[in-house]
Amino acid sequence: MRRSADPAVLIVCLSRRFGGAEVRVLQTAGALRGRCRHAVAVLEGSPLHRKLTEAGCPVLPFAYGRGDSRLFFALRRAIRSGNFSVVDAHNPQSQFWGLMAAASLRVPAMVSTVHSSYGQTDRGVKKVLYEGVLRLNRLFRCRFIAVSEAVRDYLPGLGIPSRSITLVHNAVPVAGGPVLSGSPAVKESLGWRGDDYLVTAVGRLEPVKGHAFLIKALGSAVRERPRLRCLFVGEGRLRPELEALARKMDLGRHARFMGFRDDVIDILRGSDAFCMPSLSEGLPYALLEACSLGLPVLASAVGGIARLIEDGRTGILVPPEDVEALSGGLCALIDDPGAAKAMGMAAFRMVQERFSPGWMLAQTLGVYGILDEQDERGLETYRGHL
């Protein structure tokens, strides 16, 4: 779609955590600088609020809880006073309050960016509520952005017409070339030896991320491979339970929990491999970041992961919740470093070719309806190379 006159974009992300959706919002807001007037609506004091401010991006902070109905009126005032012509919402709370406010003002372009298949990541009341929000977005005649093929294929099951859905993959900058071997600094800072084999898992410590299965797999693998180490980067409600499981399995020397970190790329550069044992995923940024560094990947064959990683070529895929297969994958990585590096390099090349930030932005602008002629030519050139 061609660029509208004087477009103004409001991105809504009412989240208290910082994960893949928030990374995408941060990237998009930064890329919009100099292209059009824009702002990001956030919860005051959230990690995203802080990171956007540090990056110099325009922010509209709201001092309410994400379930507070006053958000509707506050967002409505912000949209009207800012004369925003595009509203793009990035999580269930944002898709409810933000797009309901936009619909009440008949904003020309309303976009619901969906990062995961709620039917797989959530259960019970939460599943019903979250999917209900997407059905409400459909009634608002929203456009939908799916971040992975798995999400794109999930949305029509909620009655969302395929013509309203655009697949726009997550993207990462290639971060300075592949890691040939993990820097010893990260390992040594944790009291480990520089020649230990470090597998890092990045993600929220929540049930859907499957970390308990990785801990159990590590417990099995270290019996014959004592140099194996596993680092968990991220916070979440399961942290005490996961730490207790690691202690129960006598993994004090083999597993560490670092909590939320701003220096994930540096930690990955100090790692030998990356593991994502999730039960469900869209297209996770952490996985793309690991691939952009050329790290060998061990991951569950679910959702967007199974579409991204080719087993045996760009990584090792295992069934979800399969401790034995995960343990075997860990052993395969440490036992054959040459094959592991070859898979990492193949993943590095794949990210270079398929997950350009410029491509993600151009596609997003197309959904917003604010492409200029140069953007359109770039999209056609890129499509010609697919």
From TrEMBL:
* Domain Glycosyl transferase family residues, every copy: 187-347
Q: Sorted alphabetically, which Pfam families does this protein's record hold? A: Glyco_transf_4, Glycos_transf_1
From what superkingdom does this record's organism come? Bacteria
Q: Provide the Glycosyltransferase subfamily 4-like N-terminal domain boundaries.
A: 18-173
Cite a single GO MF annotation: glycosyltransferase activity
**Name used for this protein in its record:** Glycosyltransferase family 4 protein
